[in-house]
Amino acid sequence: SSQGELHDEL
Amino acid sequence: MNIFRLAGDMTHLISVLVLLLKIYATKSCSGISLKTQELYAMVFVARYLDLFTDYISFYNTVMKIVFILSSLAIVWCMRMHRVVKRSYDKELDTFRHNILIVVCFGVAVIINEKFTLREVFWAFSIYLEAVAILPQLVLLQRSGNVDNLTGQYVFLLGGYRAFYILNWIYRYFVEQRFSRWISAISGLIQTALYADFFYYYFLSWKNNAKLHLPA
Question: Where is the chain membrane-spanning (chain B) (predicted)?
Fold first, then answer.
């Protein structure tokens, strides 16, 4: 859960 | 994507379809909180700003578009549709939802993963979603009797949250990936808000009686 990771959940 | 996440998304999708079906088939939105629907529309628009910047999968893109368009369509129907808007329980839908918007935005400015426009709006949408059901629960409690489709709609929405919690547990233990803590804590709060409703929903189901929420 690092910064800049994509939001892959809806 | 694991089975719990898919089950959560599908439950969410079905809840929206149930609501659209209720409005379309009965030409009525009685028992539905316009304030909750407006909050959801705001949640999806704020969260899916990344629709234009990040591509995750075809599935994600389609679902995002479906959630944005369906929530806007519901708000439009309840406000503008000549027949549907007449059945809106305006006098029961008195929750001060603007306060939720202001507080959630304030918290999002302070607590976010990164102080960028996109991340602040993302956090705002997560916080707002956690409390967006409140006007709906208050409306149901005030009206007492809940019609079947409205009861199922709220039950499915709660089910969607419950599946997401299982999804996070699965991701943590099986995929060794922890979902964002902002989502997890907000998600737990959101699901807890349904606890009371679930209790009465199961009670009415067990007794085969109409769902009735005590005042």
Answer: 55-77, 121-140, 152-170, 182-202
